Queue: 3 jobs
Job 1
Amino acid sequence: MVIWGFRGVRSTKAKGDFFCPSCNSDQHYDHKRVRRFFTLYFIPLIPLGELGDYVECGRCKQTYNEKVLEYNPKKEAERIQMAYHAALKSTMIEIMLADGEIEEAEVKIIMDTINEFSTQEASEVELRAEIESAEAQTSIIKRRLRELGPQLNDGGREKIIQAGLRVATADGNFDDSEKQLLVEIAGSLGMTEAHLAGVIATSMAD
Ligand SMILES: [Zn+2]
């Protein structure tokens, strides 16, 4: 008698590390595939097609859809942190350029502020290169701020405005072009003018 049948056979498609939502930590995973086989005498002989695939945590054995591999809260937090620093720096550069002049006192404040917010030492050569390219493309900052604004809380938005203010007032003169630019930046961040006025009043009083 010929004994034949069908069977699902599991194989490992890929391995790696991922963030397991169930363990709430980084764990090893196996990306497994289940294929249907035609079997003869219980031996899988002919692959007939995929029944599905899943990701299995090596620790808790929980299984997931493969989309789980794209989820990485640490990377996401790092990405927002980097975007935040970039927006902060761009804001200060933009404010500095608002009156059409680059003063050494302003460059120094930008350097100091970057160093205050970042764990990496700022490079002055890099900053100056960035200032040069910012002169060429002033619209990028507004796009960045519009993207970032909804992800920040009020404190985060206020810090960007305060950083801009520090540069604007570095030459001892807070002029209309600088004020106007702050209004635009606040608008891009989704802040109301009243909120901006409050932040300016508080910062000036310090
Ligand atoms: Zn797990």
Job 2
Amino acid sequence: MKKIVGILGLSLFFSCVSGTDPMPNEFSFDYKIHTSLPSTWESEFYTIVGNLNEKIKIEPRDYSYQMSVYAWKSTASKPYQSQIGDASGASVSGNQNERYMVLEIPASEFDFAQLHRYSVIPHEYFHVYQMSLSKNFYDGNIELKWISEGGAATIESMYIQQYYGVNYIKDAQNQVNIAAINNPKIFEKYNDSQNEDPNYSSSVFMVLALAKELQKLNHTEEDAFKMIFKDFWLPNPTNGNWKNNFEEVFGISVENFYQSLSNYSSDINSVLPSETILIEDIFTN
Ligand SMILES: [Zn+2]
């Protein structure tokens, strides 16, 4: 306790000198959960975010240490328009000044009790985590869809497996396009693969295949995913240099990895991770 007061005092002193807000010790979210959402969703939301904060800790950065989360049910017509304009769907979006998380939950997901109404939370949370690892990702200087979206969508499924006991990869991310094995480059850009990546199935396939290739190089499964989810982002890659970064972190060139995909069939079942893998074991170190 004493130590915390000391750190606080120091940062306050620093703020007097510099005239800027002190960076807090913890990343924080500011939740705006609209009344259109059922209270059961709201309480599950806080449970999920609590679990994620514990297992995938987002460190505060000088460029990003707090974020607002705007959540509502799609039947409410844009209740946060004055704050986020016409933003809809689910994303981490923003403007020059800030980023915010948008969670517009489709009414149909409640009607049909679809797990996506919950899985979207770890997905978007994970993008905030990626932003905390890489300022270039935060700034939009790297696209690389299959690693960024494939990573978020894989975490989404791992969360559902761990907490709901459902294999969401098999159930919802199984529409892998043949391009994932014979033309994987198109998954680097959103615009090049709009029709080949339903629910990011192909991007998830590539992430899971990379984890398999890393295990062939004697990394454990947990380590393989940690390398993809975390280590890849830490050197702060850009659209211009990510291929070097990829080879340094994974010990495989992008070209060789893309080649290796032709050894797989474009079937998500050929690359499934173990159902017992725990998120906390991936992010422990
Ligand atoms: Zn995403």
Job 3
Amino acid sequence: MSDDPFSAPFGSLFGDSMTLARLAGGTYDYAGHAQPLENFSLHPATHALHYGSTCFEGLKAHRQGDGSLAVFRLDDHVERMRQSIGRLRMPVPDATLVRSMIIDAVEANAAFTPDPPGSLYIRPTFVGTTPNIGAAAVPSDTALLYVICSPVGDYFKGGVRPLTIYVETKTPRTTPQFGMVKSGANYVMALGPTLDAKRDHGADQVLFANGDDITETGASNFFLCDGGRVVTRALDESFLHGVTRDSVIKLAVSLGYEVEERKITVAELQEWARAGGEVFLSGTAAVVAPVGTVVVGDASIVVGDGQPGPNTLRLREALTSLQIGAADDPFGWMTKVKG
Ligand SMILES: Cc1ncc(COP(=O)(O)O)c(C=O)c1O
């Protein structure tokens, strides 16, 4: 397999170091430094393998123009990781611990960071490890908390190209109480509809719109925009509160767009696309990804002229130039690390 992050599948290459803490007796024990990336030995009855006591985060470190390295919105991802662990009803680690584990992992893997538009994708992970197949209704009392890093290029094959999204109105992405948790179960639940939409409609992603309420895709948040407005679903507990979503909103406001956070129906999306509006997805992996075709039922609707729109590209550029240090960071989003 290629070891070039721009041709290898996203997330399939790894830096050679990791950080690891072990939870036991309610306390996380971390050595305070990175160690070689290596396999774990897990008991076959490991809680996470049977009862899903696992969650993760996804954030990125970007090579800056001066050669240094900086992590995008570190503290927001730390908070979301802590929130996910709490919703698994597991002891929540201190923010300072998760923060140091991420920084130590990035610094140890710094040499693996490709130049922009590549980056170092960071994957904090939590796994409940108690060996007990009778513990379906009991939290694991031991766990591994670890951080691994992956040099990445583009998430969507072919770089910035107009995506095709299939609008799924019947099957929800996940359960309402787990919409805000980045747990593996959510992703395997979204897999069936995603594979079906790929096979039947050539879709890159499924846009979940259960009950005619458009929320998000399997791995990104959803936006409409035009020359003056940026529209996205208002936050509630049913979907993931994307850090990129929040960043796009703040950047859009600073660029003079009016931002509307509210419900969006499938009819509005169709009308928006037909009327020449723009549609895009946002996420750590997806960045800001233009949508060129929306499939509803058997109808394919081309968004505008089917090409990435100027406002989408403007917002993408505002985000990526901030991330690589080519633009100012008025929000204090970048955390410099040694690299
Ligand atoms: C289900 C889902 N929605 C939205 C997002 C976007 O979130 P973020 O911008 O924080 O990466 C992701 C990716 O993390 C995701 O998995």
